Amino acid sequence: VHPGSDRFIVPFHLKGTNRTAALDWSDHALWWEQRKCWLLKTHWTLDKYGIQADAELRYTPQHKPLLLQLPNMKNIKMTVSFSSVVFKAVTEICQILNIRRSEELSLLRPPDDHKKKKKKDKNSHEDIWDIDLLSRGPGGSGTRKCTVVLWLDSSRSLMEQDVQEDDKLLLRFKYNVFFDLNPKYDAVRITQLYEQARWSILLEEIDCTEEEMLMFASLQYHICKLTISSEPLDNSNEPEIDEVEAALSNLEVTLEGGHTDRILVNIFLVKHSTSWTKVSDLEFSSLPKRLTLKPYKEYWFVFKDTTISYFKNKEASHGEPIEQFHLRGCEVVPDVNVTDKKFGIKLLLPVADGMNEVYIRCDNETQYAKWKAACILASKGKTMAYSSYKSEVKNIQSFLQMKSLAPPPGQAAPDLEAMEMNAECFVSPRYAKKHKTKQLTARILEAHQNIARLSLTEAKMRFIQAWQSLPEFGINYYIVRFKGSRKDEILGISYNRLIRIDMSSGLPVTTWRFANMKQWNVNWEIRQVTIEFDQNVTIAFCCVSCDCKVVHEFIGGYIFLSTRSKDQNETLDEELFHKLTGGQE
User: Fold this and answer.
1) Is 402 within 8 Å of 461 (Cβ atoms)?
2) Which of 239, 358, 373, 579 is the 20 to 30 A CA-CA neighbour of 69?
């Protein structure tokens, strides 16, 4: 290979002959090991690449076998592009696996297991499904134990990130905005998303209450029953197709709006105590209370159009309100414990320097369902006169029924012998230790009676919906040092906001919404991220627990995903993604 030439010749001799074999080299390319880069611009000379005579180049296939662990913990062997950037490689992987919206997924290095340093036995009993063996031909075998748990850089190739042939990587949903979930097209996507949600619950990667854990357990039990049952569920009473599609559309709205956090800025506890009026105007007497020792004081609250106002009393409601909350652009978060008859709604209201938090308490399930539905529509700029209001109320009521641990009225007590599975398999170890097996089995079977008529896909969708409603869902936490601060703090990154959290107390300090972001950049020399928001608010921080590129990619990735719409086809603007996430290192 000559540095001044753009051509090279590789002679290949068959053993025992002097003839050069005519092989297919179309997938091969040059890899420059010292610089860790592919030489893919074939119109460039080697001299233009900066290659000197002492450089070592490797002529190697661009596609190599890789061991992938799916969200359901199944391992598959498949041939993957080691020369394409990870974003494009994941797109190709998802096309093979029939998973839509590949932009929501990425590749992750496996966790470092210090207890298992021994080499993996070649005759391991671990199940591996060889995709290439099923479709094209045999592939390699073996895995490599990595020492770092880290998302791969989406803007660089596998080879550039030291991933080698036959290494093991995890395929996971990275960005927690699951767009356009449709059972008609997304059977694989929904199943894998359900599995990732299920394992996050079982491994306690996300906190949930005992009531929620039992609800998740009952759904898992139901899904397992339907999966292994030879008798399909009777769907003779299913609604017409247009009603089904409408219900799925409403469920999708709920799925897209179920993101939460625990920011404590301004707290109001509001108790609902009066009847409903017309569909476009709701009123109730309330008891707001800030987090102080002062006694409750009753006010009159009015929900009209997309705002909530409160007054001294009902007679004063015709005048100016004491305060008014504009719900457009807010987040609506459930704060519910059906067993304890607690039906609360948390509103995260955008303000200039972050978000304020408001709590609303309702007396019963009916009031809660109507108020939450009204708040969800108002957050999208729609009133209760909108056509989906009634269906939204029904969806919320159905979800509350699913969370109820008591059996439906008139339902016989469950037969403990009916559960042919180990109840401990459906809850995390902490909850399994808390209850005896028979007690746990009884509670799961009681909760199961509320969802026993769900189809397999409906049950998985309900599980995903409940997962999304958990307070800590979808928030990634990193240790950072803010500019001008002398101590480390925690930065939470969600799909639409950044949360500054005090490390010693664990309490949120400030929240900034992506919608108010004007621009952001990274100083790669000092590894500092700077973000400018509306109203001259600017923050800057350096990452302590990870490289700033990780935070930069999460922020840019979520902004990229927010540009998606149903009017677009599924062709992604890859250039825009890399512009928002790649940086200028």
Assistant:
1) no
2) 579
3-state SS, 412-429, equals CCCCHHHCCCCHHHHCCH
To which residue do tokens 């005048």 refer? 319
Amino acid at 96: I
Query: Does 282 or 543 have the greater pLDDT score?
Result: 543
Per the CB < 8 A criterion, the answer to whether 231 and 444 are in contact is no
Among left, alpha and beta (phi > 0; psi -120 to 50; other), residue 96 is alpha
Rounded CA-CA distance 425/219 in Å is 12
Q: Who wins on pLDDT, 236 or 563?
A: 563
Q: Are 270 and 290 in contact (CB under 8 A)?
A: no
Tokens for 100, please give them: 């839509």
> Which three-class secondary structure state does DSSP give residue 331?
strand
Measured distance CA(276)–CA(237) in Å, rounded: 32
State whether residue 47 is helix, strand or coil.
Answer: coil
- Tens of pLDDT, residues 504-555: 888 788 888 888 889 989 999 999 999 999 888 899 999 998 889 999 999 9
- What one-letter code names the amino acid at 538? T
User: What's the whole-number average pLDDT of the chain?
Assistant: 78
Q: Helix, strand, coil % (nearest 5) of the chain?
A: 30, 25, 50
261 pLDDT above the threshold of 60: no
- The predicted-structure confidence for 189-240, as pLDDT tens digits, reads as follows 999 999 999 999 999 988 888 888 999 999 999 999 998 874 444 444 444 4
DSSP state for residue 475 in the 8-state scheme:
-
Bridge partner list, 520 = 531
Output the six-digit token pair for 315.
């007679």
Domains defined for the chain, CATH in brackets: 9-61 (3.10.20.90), 177-230+421-470 (1.20.80.10), 262-273+296-403 (2.30.29.30), 475-581 (2.30.29.30)
pTM score: 0.75
349 strand-pairing partners: 356
